[in-house]
Amino acid sequence: MNIAVAQSGGPTCAINASLAGVFSAGAKSEEIGIVYGSLNGIEGILEERLVDMSEYIKSDEDIRLLVRTPSAALGSCRRKLPEYEADKSVYEKITEVFRKYDIGMFFYIGGNDSMDTVAKLSKYYAENGIDIKVIGVPKTIDNDLCETDHCPGFGSAAKYVAATVQEITRDSNVYSAPSVTVIETMGRHAGWLTAAAACLKRNGESAPHLIYLPEIDFSAEKFIDDVKNEMQKHKAVIAVVSEGVKTADGKFAAEAYQSAKTDAFGHAYLSGVGKYLENLVSEKIGCKVRSIELNVMQRCSSHIASETDITESQAIGAAAVEAALKGETGCMMIFKRVSDNPYSMEIAAVPASLTANNEKFFPKEWINSECNGVTEEAIDYVMPLIQGELMPVMENGMVKHFII
Amino acid sequence: MNIAVAQSGGPTCAINASLAGVFSAGAKSEEIGIVYGSLNGIEGILEERLVDMSEYIKSDEDIRLLVRTPSAALGSCRRKLPEYEADKSVYEKITEVFRKYDIGMFFYIGGNDSMDTVAKLSKYYAENGIDIKVIGVPKTIDNDLCETDHCPGFGSAAKYVAATVQEITRDSNVYSAPSVTVIETMGRHAGWLTAAAACLKRNGESAPHLIYLPEIDFSAEKFIDDVKNEMQKHKAVIAVVSEGVKTADGKFAAEAYQSAKTDAFGHAYLSGVGKYLENLVSEKIGCKVRSIELNVMQRCSSHIASETDITESQAIGAAAVEAALKGETGCMMIFKRVSDNPYSMEIAAVPASLTANNEKFFPKEWINSECNGVTEEAIDYVMPLIQGELMPVMENGMVKHFII
Question: Which of A58, A157, A196, A297 could pair covalently with A141 via S-S, beta carbons 3.0-4.6 A apart?
Answer without folding.
Answer: A157
